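Justification of computing resources. Each target in the renewal requires a structure prediction run like the one illustrated here; the chain below, 493 residues long, is used simply to show the kind of job we budget for.
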Amino acid sequence: MDSKAPHPQAGPLIRPHNFIDGRWTPGHDGQGFAVTDPATGLLIAEVPDSGPQDARAAVDAAAKALPLWRARLPRERAALLRRWHALILEREEDLAALISLEQGKPMAEARGEVAYGASYVAWFADEANRIYGDIIPDQQRGKRMTAIKEPIGVVAAITPWNFPLAMIARKIAPALAAGCTVVAKPAEDTPLTALALALLGQEAGFPNGVLNMVTASRARAAETVDAWLQDGRVRKISFTGSTPVGKHLARESAATLKKLSLELGGNAPFLVFEDAQLEAAVDGVMAAKFRNGGQTCVCPNRVYVQSTVYDRFARLLRDKVAALRVGPGSDPATHVGPMINARAVDKIARHVDDARRHGATVLAGGKRLEALGPNYYAPTVLGDANASMALCAEETFGPVVPLFRFDDEAQAVAAANDTPFGLAAYFYSQDLRRIERVSRALESGIVGINEGALASEAAPFGGIKESGYGREGSRYGLDDYLSIKYLCQGGLA
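Resulting structure tokens:
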């Protein structure tokens, strides 16, 4: 099939242009880049390869729209967010098909992502009406002190490819609820879902300039985002992605002292103690690890199993993983779809090959599935993993479960914490005293206790150490888009 022909699954929500000041526009210099289907390599669409002029135009629009948007009553902003939420749910099937097409995840997971992303819009529509301040108790007669919360200003949102709807929705929704305006750059691999969200926002009635999106290739992303970093009108950066890029954003935004929310890399441990319900622990690994083919920042990267139950756990997990069906996301029978691109598969293969050289045993998978296409890798379980392996220190971001043995609780906790990252951690135990000890001892922003599915719009999501700072979701998630103003009024006596 001609790679330049329209993709046979291209849907009605595709808008291959930037969205700036309420208008769909090509890039300033006319350059573009291809968005392809990771399952087949076929072209889906070509979108603008934007540069600094496009980025500045987006900020011009957001800055112009800010005064009127922040002046709207919270319930008026909430009404528009609810309308947007309703449109997202109304177009659930089209959005899910687009997510599956450009990102590769199975349709069932894509539908789940639409519902998950929409839940943030609904949550922050409600939270818009709960931006409370404080009356500070009188300290002197005739003087009243209050603290109020105000929108921080123009927000730049930069999102990854693994959840192209949910990640951008959970940044845009609180920003708009708080009264901020937004400029956004979705990931170069999956921009079409974000642009579809902008289209639905336009249909919902967001005023021109309140929400703006520009697309850029990997080659031009740095110069495009740097225009926002250097612009004093952009008061906040919200970024989800790698730790090196997060550190660059922190350094380069220092000149204008922007507020940052950084949700960065992870290296999540998963501890299975001998008193755990092993079948439940296996189910927990399956839910946490193989969602999106292992391409999530909270996927378990290191699974530590107590020696007394290691062999039984390994057999149970091996059998479950071997039964997973790999294929294109459009196939209803698929459990695990393609990886996002060839670079991702190369990294997975490199980690597995390195683990073999350092003594790992392949219990399941451990190979590319080239008959399906270049971006497929078999769901894999590796036994006898150890700390000398690259996958112990580096996030694999693929369907690979390495199993490490441990003897006692102190050893397991020390190994779990032996990483510069601290996003998510998991452990399974039925001992209530151990649950209390381990949950406090794990150095992580999120801890799953006898549970592999952590995500919720009502919970604060974020990490510590080199996994970043700031929180998304929950009532805490709105605070990152607000500044506190102290008002002191005298002459009242």
